[in-house]
Design a protein that fits this description.
This protein is of the alpha/beta class. The chain has two domains: 106 residues, no CATH class; 293 residues, Alpha-Beta Complex (Spore Coat Polysaccharide Biosynthesis Protein SpsA, Chain A), CATH 3.90.550.10. The protein is built from 15 helices and ten strands. The chain has an eight-stranded mixed sheet with strand order 3-2-1-4-8-6-9-7, sandwiched between helices. Strands 5-10 form a two-stranded antiparallel ribbon. The protein is globular and about 85 Å long.
Length: 433
């Protein structure tokens, strides 16, 4: 009996070892198939149209044809906006165009003309499009239901004739930076372009702050706003205020940045939170997927399961999601937050770029004074000055993600040159024609 029982034990042990070997081999085969099918077959098809994906295939044959596409999109938006302006008085409210004291948000659109031979005489009319979108947003029933007072103004900082801006002087509250007398004196031409930009920005911020709003939203005229801009801001600044207050002190916050260039939003960045964000994403989906795999395993496979096998599977699935996130890119993963306003995040901002800036009015007065008393140079713009100011006075800047504006400007007002078309990006919510 003893010998039979010992023999049975050996057979059982052999069977378990065999099953374990088969299970491990099957596991490796499955993992290899998943990796191969995903990264060599499926992902190249799914992500080929995503600008910041590793699998992106540019459908344009050359930068010139790509820029022509952006110009054509601009022309179609201008046509749509012009159609709106030809009949707007019959269908919309103009209450927000009147300057309101103590408004919750005062929107100031900073505009300048862009005359350039590179666009072959066609006018970009960015202001026409941006104002059109703001009028649509502010007349939206969801925006009008918010308990906020919002006012809208245009600030023309062109030292020459800006016909487009003047056409709207009878439609919205209008501020003119330069008078004809100043033009004759030719003072402006002696300023370097970065200093002029800073002074213009300071002028527009000052005009906005005169009405004593809670927030001043300074928008450059080629920043196209999200349709749910104010609904999302209300949720972040009012409904989630108590949650945010536990992480940041309101007294330290100078501004909320509402746009940051997409090319700077990837995982590989000087921002310290990007890599932990990648690891957290992979660990979360890796753990959930591993638990799901174990749950779906047949009972026989579970019987031969070992704890170390769980960790091996978890590791390789986590690696899979890490590589997937990198392949898709942080830019496109972040856009999933557009699904719901509750998914938007607010965190520390990085340097660069001011197309859409929501200033806390109480703190902006001191920043305005600092701008007025300091000078920019060709290598020192207002963006860098803002960073220096924040560090010097221990003020904080926050960024709302994903972006609440789209940069539609393909012609730089500073350099007078066309942008590299690869820098132009339209998120999924942005209407293409």
């Amino acid at each position: 009996m003893g010998s039979i029982s010992s023999e049975n034990r050996d057979n059982i042990k052999t069977t378990m070892v065999f099953r374990s070997c088969c299970f491990n081999r099957l596991t490796w085969i499955c993992l290899m198939m998943i990796y191969s099918v995903s990264f060599l077959g499926l992902f190249p098809l799914l992500f080929k149209d995503m600008r910041y994906s590793l699998y992106y295939r540019n459908p344009f044959g050359s930068p010139k044809s790509e820029m022509n596409y952006h110009k054509k999109q601009n022309e179609l938006r201008v046509a749509k906006a012009s159609e709106f302006w030809s009949s707007y008085r019959q269908s919309i409210s103009l209450d927000f165009t009147k300057k309101q004291k103590d408004a919750d948000i005062d929107i100031m659109i900073v505009t300048t003309s862009r005359h350039n031979s590179l666009i072959k005489g066609k006018k970009t009319r960015f202001l026409t499009q941006v104002l059109w979108q703001f009028f649509n947003i502010l007349n939206n029933s969801e925006t009008r239901a918010l308990p906020w007072k919002i006012s809208l103004s245009v600030c023309n900082v062109d030292s020459k004739l800006n016909e487009e801006a003047r056409n709207f002087s009878s439609v919205v509250q209008y501020f003119q930076r330069y008078s004809e007398e100043q033009n004759l004196q030719n003072d402006v031409s002696r300023l370097n372009i970065k200093e002029k930009e800073k002074r213009d920005y300071a002028f527009c911020l000052e005009q906005s702050l005169k009405s004593k709003p809670r927030y001043s939203l300074l928008v450059e005229d080629d920043a196209f706003p999200h349709p749910q801009l104010f609904r999302i801001l209300y949720y972040l600044l009012e409904i989630r205020r108590s949650v945010m207050a536990s992480r940041v002190h309101d007294s330290d916050v100078l501004f909320y940045k509402l746009y940051h260039p997409e090319r700077l939003l990837g995982f590989l960045s000087i921002q310290p939170e990007r890599i932990p964000e990648l690891i957290s994403f992979a660990a979360l989906f890796g753990t959930c997927s591993t638990l799901l795999v174990i749950y779906l395993l047949p009972k026989r496979a579970k019987a031969s399961f070992r704890s170390y096998t769980f960790y091996v599977i978890w590791f390789w699935i986590t690696v899979y999601f890490t590589l997937t996130a990198i392949a898709v890119s942080r830019q496109h993963l972040t856009e999933l937050r557009y699904i719901s306003r509750s998914l938007f995040s607010v965190g520390p901002t990085s340097s660069c770029c001011t197309p859409g800036m929501l200033f806390v009015a109480d703190k902006a007065q001191h920043w305005l004074h600092y701008m007025t008393n300091n000078t920019c140079s060709l290598n020192y713009g207002k963006d860098t000055m803002l960073d220096d100011y924040r560090h010097k006075f221990s003020m904080r800047g926050l960024i709302v993600q994903p972006n609440l504006f789209v940069h539609i400007g393909f012609l730089s007002s500073l350099s007078g040159q066309l942008l590299d078309p690869s820098l132009m990006y339209y998120p999924q919510w942005f209407n293409l024609f």
